[in-house]
Amino acid sequence: MIAWLKFVPGWVWWVLALAVVAGGQQVRVLSAQSGASKAQAEHQNHLRQVAEANAAVILKQQADRLALEQRLAKADQQSIEKLTHALTENDRLERLYSSADDERRRLRIEVKVARADAVVSAATGPGSVGDAASVELSAAAGRTVWDIRRGMKQDQAALEYLQEWARQILGAR
Fold first, then answer.
1. Which residue, 67, 57, 82, 78, is CA-closest to 171?
2. Integer CA distances (angstroms), 46 to 32, 38, 41, 54, 145, in order
3. Which of 4, 53, 76, 122 has its CA at 20 to 30 Å from residue 20's CA atom?
4. How do the domains of the chain map onto residue ranges?
5. What 8-state DSSP symbol labels residue 5?
6. Contact 83, 150 (CB under 8 A)
7. What is the mean pLDDT of each run of 10 residues along the chain (173 residues)?
8. What is the 3-state secondary structure (H, E, C) of 21-37?
9. pTM for the complete prediction?
10. Structure-derived torsion over alpha carbons of residues 137, 139, 144, 150, reported in degrees to the nearest 10
């Protein structure tokens, strides 16, 4: 029964062996491709999940930023209204001062003036601060006082605005 195999030429055995090896390789390649397809599908799924998570973070950041911008705009509006009111009040007081008669236009400041001849002694008890006096400013100095007051109101409003801005920014973090 095995005797007829002797008549099969050698090259046929080589072709047959090559076909068996190639078939085995084909099975192995198909198996590897199937595994690679599964790994690729898992990788794609992972990438989709990461992209969705990143998109959610970006949307939350955008919402937080919009909320912060709205709070800052509201604080800005309130600050502008407050400053406008303070400057309007300052202008009103300055107009009242300017339209007053000479006696009322003089800006007087009550001060305590230390006496030049006062002697401080530990034996006599507490000393006196001094006598009360009134200092009268010139008209130009009076106008300067209003300018200083206006500047103080503007600086105060700017400081309050910046403090509120800092609270909003730091509160957002």
1. 67
2. 21, 12, 9, 12, 70
3. 4
4. 10-172
5. G
6. no
7. 66 80 85 84 92 95 92 90 90 80 62 57 50 66 82 90 86 67
8. HHHHHHHHHHHHHHHHH
9. 0.48
10. 110
